Recover the amino acids of this structure.
């Protein structure tokens, strides 16, 4: 027990560092073997080591969820921090709330699956290189998800660039160089946006608090809390920061019109990379938005809410229409991601409990379903040598298991009840009914268009007669492939049937977010509606945002139950 | 003895050894003999550098005469020169190994150039500064043209000479005007507004302007930069490393010294030239940043691309000068280290790729490098990313300091331009990065890096990563110690020089 207790003290750090440390150990081991003149280890050994490492990380994440994370606690917890550079306001600090916990768990769960699915690498010379890239990317994504210091967040955000460039440039398919250039360029623009916001906050904290800080949680215990959340930003400054963060979000989530890199990237990327891009990568954008942008610029976020909602719905409708005419599976799925990123933005822009919770759930379940679809596309490509939709048809006969899993993923994306996608969609729509009633109608229409292309692709691939002779002899998924897909399907069904464990963790984080937004709002501070300080523990804005909403009441009640 | 003279003594010894025993003609003796001769004579140069380092480390005496007094800022400069000179010397061995020139001349020229740089870095006398720049630059120009088989080498040398002549002319006239206005030649004259009578204040303004323009031209800040990409394309790698590290750092450090001394109270008045210096530097820095990085985006030649990236880096260093009285000076010193090690690393990689049968002149020539030489490809990528300012590298740290100083000083437009240039830089470096990932065209693999190149690559990589990620808390590690050392160097500038 003592050992476990001491491990808990740096559990998050260990989760973030372990994949990268494994990669470093593999490099050292290879060099050592070269120096002593020993033969190289077989690829299976490297794969085994990497899978073991990532499974260990996943196990640590599960332990974090079950044993360490306190459901009753609002805000960030399990905070670990090491002083990095006081002059820069940098503290290597990690912390977690319900939102990042969900994203962390899904990312750590998918990485071993991605490694296991890449069996075609067995004979390749550079298996180890690809494993190193995968592990480094995992560390970078996990670091972004749990960073509570803006500079550290940016550090990990930028650390994802290089592995993705390497993966796409080295192991990508046709058009990979162009896709890599695009993703690099858009990510650089996003990085510049984040840096701009950081420099302004760095200076503001310096001028207001006497020392620069970029922390969300004070690393100093006692009565000297100096965090970014204590920096007062006037509305104009909030707009500046908001735009900077929005630029970063738009490039990575991605939001139309900054989405152009994603279809090209998915079309050229191997299945493993596509999984990362569809899950952890875009989740880091959402994390940055909810952890930094919304609480730091609450008034700008509230004022920009309607415009962001329109943009989100437009993105969903536009991407769905474009997806309808796609002839290649990866591109179709990429446009699906663009569309649902727009829907997620719609949820985030409602700025109420249901909308934000739905957005998190939507990103989580859509990520899982899309990861499953990219894996299935990869499996089909291995068997058939192409991902053109026209090359398939009637696959349900030779590949019934594949058809089943594909159907589950598609139905989840469509929002079928008892599947994970439904919960996210429902919450987003509930949230929008409160604040964006008219726009929610358009959102429903856009969802119908999205459903139509998903149904079309399911029908085109799996139903009807087997026209192509090459499809008749296709072998169905083997045990490992089934196991991988089952591991993805189970949480999708579990969330759809019984979402409470997720909701109980996400909603307190959302309530805390809304509380911080209200606390920091300079507009409502001047509003006569606001009560005197200390009058009520729950600020008026949170109550206002939750007023009349059954979902919010339920959310609060659930937290109460948890207590 | 003042340590700045040690390289000059070393140069004389090298020439003496060459006259007394070394082979006279490389073509007659072959590459091996030339390389051995290079190692022998290089050892003399290394001893001279070691002498400087030992003197700086162990000799507490800091006053060696009225013109070459060592303050902490000067010691920082000398330390920088010694470290960079070690790398330049190491890379020069590759050049001698290929028997492209006799070793005595380039080594002697390098040593003379280092003497000039060291004198410029420690002096607070403007006439000594002018002479020191001549001593530093003329050997450098000769070195640029040392690869006589390449036309581009001679051409770039000529361009560098014209740029140097212009800078010297303007600088010398500036010093003359200042002398006319104040009757003095030490740096305190720059701050000595009380010495300037109303009738001569125009002379003072003109003199200060000319001194600044002369130094800006010498630093290759846009629009005085066109010779720089040519030199990077035409000169051997060790020479370009010298140009991008020692020569560049010398000019910027002298600029810091001058800008700390000037303007005096008279020139700080609103509307005066002194008040406009930050504005002028912002414009020049912005032009260099955008011009350099935008041109790097469209280059086909690899060395030229690096040359334009260097122009962009100079833009960042110029922006650091905007807030030179505040945090900008610290940012600049860190920026010089970051830019120096990154460029030295890049040049070491290019040197290792170019001394064999397979030339590496174009970006496309990097194809297959990731497969054939993954460690070198990784290091090359690391140095490029540091030049691009990606977090986790020393390049980012320096850029952070620079841009934070701009925001602190209220220069938000400059901050935005700096961030825009970062995007351009990252896009420019993505081309060589992607080229390395492409499969080889089968024209033959890259050969192994030589030991001297591996040495430089290792040193640069350690510095880029270590100072990019290590905590900077007090003096608990080398990163913290460097930070403290930089602070002390800047503080020593705030102490007014004695009026003689």
């Amino acid at each position: 027990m003592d050992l476990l207790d001491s491990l808990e003290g740096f559990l998050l750090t260990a989760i973030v560092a372990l994949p990268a440390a494994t990669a470093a150990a593999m490099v050292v081991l290879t060099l050592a073997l070269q120096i002593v003149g020993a033969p190289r280890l077989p690829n299976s050994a490297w794969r085994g080591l990497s899978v073991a490492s990532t499974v260990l990380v996943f196990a640590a994440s599960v332990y974090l969820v079950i044993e360490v994370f306190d459901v009753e606690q609002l805000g960030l917890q399990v905070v670990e921090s090491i002083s990095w550079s006081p002059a820069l306001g940098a503290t290597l600090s990690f912390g977690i709330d319900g939102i990042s916990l969900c994203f962390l768990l899904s990312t750590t769960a998918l990485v071993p699956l991605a490694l296991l699915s890449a069996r075609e690498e067995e004979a390749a010379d550079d298996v180890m290189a690809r494993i190193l890239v995968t592990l480094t990317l995992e560390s970078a994504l996990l670091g972004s998800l749990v960073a509570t210091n803006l500079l550290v967040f940016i550090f990990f955000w930028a650390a994802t660039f290089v592995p993705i460039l390497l993966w796409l440039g080295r192991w990508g398919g046709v058009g990979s160089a162009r896709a890599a250039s695009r993703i690099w360029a858009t990510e650089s623009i996003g990085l510049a946006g984040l840096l701009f916001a950081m420099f302004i906050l760095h200076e503001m904290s310096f001028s207001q608090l006497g020392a620069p800080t970029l922390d969300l949680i004070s690393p100093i215990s006692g009565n000297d809390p100096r965090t970014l959340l204590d920096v007062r930003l006037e509305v104009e400054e909030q707009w500046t920061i908001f735009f900077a963060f929005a630029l970063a979000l738009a490039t990575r989530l991605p939001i139309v019109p900054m989405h152009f890199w994603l279809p090209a990237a998915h079309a050229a990327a191997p299945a493993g990379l596509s999984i990362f891009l569809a899950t952890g990568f875009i989740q880091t954008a959402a994390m940055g938005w909810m952890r930094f942008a919304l609480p730091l610029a609450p008034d700008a976020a509230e004022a920009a809410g309607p415009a962001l909602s329109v943009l989100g719905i437009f993105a969903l409708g536009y991407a769905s229409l474009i997806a309808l005419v796609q002839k290649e599976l990866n591109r179709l799925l990429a446009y699906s991601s663009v569309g649902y990123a727009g829907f997620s933005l719609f949820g985030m822009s409602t700025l109420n409990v249901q909308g934000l919770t739905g957005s998190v759930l939507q990103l989580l379940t859509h990520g899982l379903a899309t990861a499953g679809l990219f894996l299935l596309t990869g499996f089909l490509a291995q068997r058939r040598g192409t991902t053109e939709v026209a090359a398939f048809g009637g696959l349900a006969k030779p590949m019934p298991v594949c058809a089943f899993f594909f159907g589950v993923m598609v139905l989840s994306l469509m929002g079928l009840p008892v599947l994970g996608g439904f919960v996210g969609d429902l919450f987003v729509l509930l949230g929008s009914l409160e604040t964006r009633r008219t726009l929610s109608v358009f959102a429903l229409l856009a969802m119908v268009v999205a459903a139509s292309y998903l149904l079309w692709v399911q029908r085109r691939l799996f139903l009807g007669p087997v026209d192509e002779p090459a499809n008749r002899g296709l072998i169905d998924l083997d045990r490992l492939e089934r196991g991988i897909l089952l591991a993805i399907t189970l949480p999708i069904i579990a969330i759809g049937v019984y979402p409470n464990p997720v909701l109980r963790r996400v909603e307190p984080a959302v309530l805390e977010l809304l509380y911080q937004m209200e606390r920091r709002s300079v507009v409502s501070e001047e509003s006569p509606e606001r009560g005197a300080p200390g009058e009520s523990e729950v600020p008026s804005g949170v109550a206002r945002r939750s007023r009349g909403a059954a979902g919010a009441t339920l959310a609060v009640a659930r937290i109460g139950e948890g207590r | 003895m003042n340590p700045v003279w040690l390289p000059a003594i070393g140069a004389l010894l090298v020439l003496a050894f060459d006259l007394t025993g070394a082979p006279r003609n490389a073509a007659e003796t072959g590459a091996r003999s030339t390389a051995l001769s290079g190692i022998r004579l290089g050892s003399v140069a290394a001893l001279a550098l070691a002498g400087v380092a030992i003197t700086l480390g162990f000799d507490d005496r800091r006053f060696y005469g009225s013109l070459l007094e060592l303050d902490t800022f000067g010691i920082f400069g000398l330390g920088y020169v010694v470290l960079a000179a070690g790398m330049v010397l190491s890379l020069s061995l590759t050049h001698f190994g290929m028997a492209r020139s006799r070793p005595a001349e380039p080594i002697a020229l390098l040593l003379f150039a280092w003497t000039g740089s060291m004198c410029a870095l420690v002096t607070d006398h403007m006439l000594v500064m002018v002479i020191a720049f001549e001593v530093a630059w003329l050997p450098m120009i000769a070195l640029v043209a040392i690869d006589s088989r390449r036309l581009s080498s001679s051409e770039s040398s000529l361009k560098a000479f014209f740029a140097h002549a212009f800078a010297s002319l303007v600088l010398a006239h500036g010093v003359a005007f200042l002398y006319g206005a104040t009757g003095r030649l030490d740096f305190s004259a720059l701050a000595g507004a009380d010495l300037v009578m109303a009738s001569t204040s125009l002379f003072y303004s003109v003199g200060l302007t000319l001194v600044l323009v002369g130094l800006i031209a010498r630093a290759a800040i846009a629009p005085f930069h066109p010779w720089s990409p040519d030199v990077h394309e035409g000169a051997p790698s060790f020479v370009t490393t010298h140009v991008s590290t020692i020569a560049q750092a010398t000019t910027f450090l002298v600029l810091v010294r001058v800008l700390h001394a000037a303007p005096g109270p008279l020139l700080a008045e609103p509307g005066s030239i002194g008040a406009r210096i930050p504005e002028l530097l912002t414009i020049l820095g912005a032009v260099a940043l955008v011009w350099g990085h935008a041109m790097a985006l469209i280059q086909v030649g690899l060395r030229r691309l690096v040359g334009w990236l260097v122009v962009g880096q100079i833009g960042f260093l110029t922006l650091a000068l905007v807030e030179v009285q505040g945090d900008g000076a610290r940012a600049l010193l860190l920026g010089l280290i970051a830019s120096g090690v990154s460029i030295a690393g890049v040049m070491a990689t290019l040197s290792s790729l170019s001394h064999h049968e397979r030339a590496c002149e174009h970006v496309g020539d990097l194809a297959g490098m990731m497969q054939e030489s993954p460690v070198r490809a990784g290091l090359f990528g690391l140095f490029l990313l540091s030049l691009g300012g990606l977090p986790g590298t020393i390049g980012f740290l320096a850029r952070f300091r620079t841009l934070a100083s701009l925001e602190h000083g209220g220069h938000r437009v400059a901050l935005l331009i700096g961030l825009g240039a970062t995007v351009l830089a990252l896009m420019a470096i993505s081309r060589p990065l992607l080229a390395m990932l492409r499969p080889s065209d089968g024209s033959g693999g890259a050969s192994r890096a030589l030991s001297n190149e591996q040495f430089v690559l290792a040193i640069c990589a350690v510095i880029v990563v270590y100072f990019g990620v290590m905590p900077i808390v007090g003096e608990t590690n080398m990163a913290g110690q460097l930070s403290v050392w930089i602070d002390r160097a800047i503080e020593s500038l705030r102490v007014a020089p004695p009026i003689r």
About this structure: The longest strand of chain A covers residues 77-85.
